[in-house]
Fold this protein.
Amino acid sequence: MIAATPADETDPTTIALSGRAIRKQYGGVHALDGMEITIGRGEVHAILGENGAGKSTFVKIVAGVVRPDRGAILVEGRPLAFASPQESRRAGIAVVYQELSLVPQLSVTHNLVLSNLPLRRGLVSLRRAESIAADALARLGLGTIDPRVPVSSLALDQQQMVEIAKATMSEPRILILDEATSSLGDAEVQRLFALVRALRDRGTTVVVITHRMHEVYALADTMTILRDGRTVGRYSVAATDPQQVVSLMAGRDITTVFPAKQAAAQRQPALELRDVRLHRGQEPWQLTLFKGEILGLGGLNGQGQRRFLYWLYGAESGAGTIHRDGRRVKIRRPSEALRHGITLIPEDRAVEGLHLNLPVRWNLAMATLRRRSRFGIMRMGAERKLTTSAIARMSIKLRSPFQPVSALSGGSQQKVVIGKFMESNPSVLLFVDSTRGIDVQTKFDFYEMVRDIAATGAACILYSSDTEELVGLCDRVAVFHDGVPAMMLEGAAVTQDAVVAASFAVVRGAG
Amino acid sequence: MSTVPISTRPRRARRPPWHRAYTAAALALVLFVIYLVRNHGFGSIEALGITNAALPLALAAAGETFVILTNGIDLSIGSVITLSNVVCAVIAGNGHAPLAVAAAIAVGAGAGCLNGLMVSFARIAPLIATLATSSIYLGCALIVLPNPGGSVPGWLSSWTAGSAGAVPVAVIWLAVAIVAGWVILRRTSFGINLQALGGSESASRSAGINVTRTRILAYVASGTCSALAGVVLAGLTQSGDPTIGAVYLLDGIAAVVVGGTSLAGGIATISGSVLGAIALSLVSAVLLVSGLSTDYQYIVTGLIVIGALLAHTLQGRLGLRASRHVPASRGEAAG
């Protein structure tokens, strides 16, 4: 592994952005503890680190949203005064945040021009706003998005692309992408990459923050690795392999990323799905789910993978019958799915999976309330026993079971979500993009947890927009196109190349 | 730029929330038709009566719309109407009519500004902050004018409650309110910033909008509109009355709701609020010509508010279905 030679630090013309001894404390916790960074002009630079390493704090400081306690940030040699987001924007910095910073009720046009409304005689010129917005969208190949519709009517990936259009329309000298790909499918990611390369070729410096290793390798020239708020080092991407990066981030060696797959010896069906049609005019299709397997759902984003899982969970309409041990089971709503042991782990843990302000213990107990109550009164002893075992089983790190969930780290929150559903002993688990935006270590824990769950004989279906994850974790991968599992990859055929190729092949084949 | 297939699809265009004002317009129209049928005709006297009743409510509702748009609420509109009403009548009664109007408007704007400062800097929830200031403003009004009295000159009455030929002046003011409201909300930076703030405060902040100033200005706009309502009432009654504003608080909020403004913030039309106010003020006229006691108007108003909310929800659902909208957390529209 070779540490990349920093661009000549005494020559400000070669350095776009540098940070010196940046410190930031939240409460008693050091988010940044003397971070150092040097980013050369015109390079694509990745910042890597586990959750809590300080990446987001750094981005917020550069963006002018958060003020550091100590330290300096120089933009092309000039110090940033950390006054406001406007100051940062004037310095030529644009940020695409992980959490969308769009106003859902406003139209795409208004969102795009919001920070710089085009005025004519004191009034906002709608015509000019619309042409500015149309230009910005066209530059990203987003001609299919109607700029007049409210952002809330767009799909999540479209919203993310609008967000990116918003950041790039001011032609920033430094573009920061903070987990910008976490809600994008492969096609959008490819388009974003093409845009980033085009910007770099025009001299823009791009800073990328991502948890996806393959994106770093596809895109970045250099990287800075952070650990616990400190800089581990600056490295050249070409001279460092992923394994090394992971161990540098974690501060230890992680030999295997994914747990070993199960041998497909005994294959007992867990569920048989017959004559499934997710929407009208579709050829009915069949799918058998086996006990103890992890089935991945692949394909481009938005090909009905989520809808399929929500249909199976009784939360979306669709035709088809579900059979278990030869008998038909009827699932018309989630409560019936739960009764039949089918559980869905939602992707947005903050919105669908958890009551953030309530204690961990109540969150864990929530899914099995009815079972533990007598005449509507909860039996507290049973609750204590159950939650204690869940906390131990999922090895959730906490101070007290009465801590609110919002006080836990993202990874622990995820464990609470899964732990909550595990207590009802499900036989089929549906995971909807569960690792979106979580750090590497938490992902590893998640993979092992899913594998352990499968080893107990439960069947798992996992939809992920991260192909690497599908390939590493799943025994079989069903590649979806337009609501149909158009291709099934199995065993040795499950490779990154095969899944990506199949995703695009099925589109061409059907198109 | 790239040959990668596009997984995103075009969706049906959904224009700004005009359609939310349709409910109020339809309601006003229906009530007006009932009135016409029952009353066997419509003359300038009737027109004057109805529009003069609607104008102060419409102004109060228009002002309240700005605040509700930012996700807040202004419970002081009734008291601000009263305060500006008595200030106007007392000063005008001493023979300084133009000064009276200016003072009343300044008092309203100042009262709104204080509301905004309380909400922005003291960080008191709008509901509580404006409940408290409402009590203060009412107290001030009672000190200024403990009993109904004062007077306003004839020209002020004819400018607010008179007729221009056969057309009541109030009709013109209502039209001005709708047009001005449209321009302010859709065509000024203030209006667009307001909508952004109501939709997402954090997004507005990161877009560089001065959130504090925008929010304070929303309360100032509300106070100013209430002051205008107070002045109009002074012209209408040709005097001041320290109890005059109370009814406009709940009716004003009701008109905003009927007009389609979302109580969750971010979506509003001034035209909807003005039409909602017209509809609500038609209720008592309709009851009167139907031979029913106007005591029923509270029940009818309550039913109308509930009905309008249901209509908006229904409209929303139908709209969503038409545009194949799926909540973002459920991802795609397979279709």
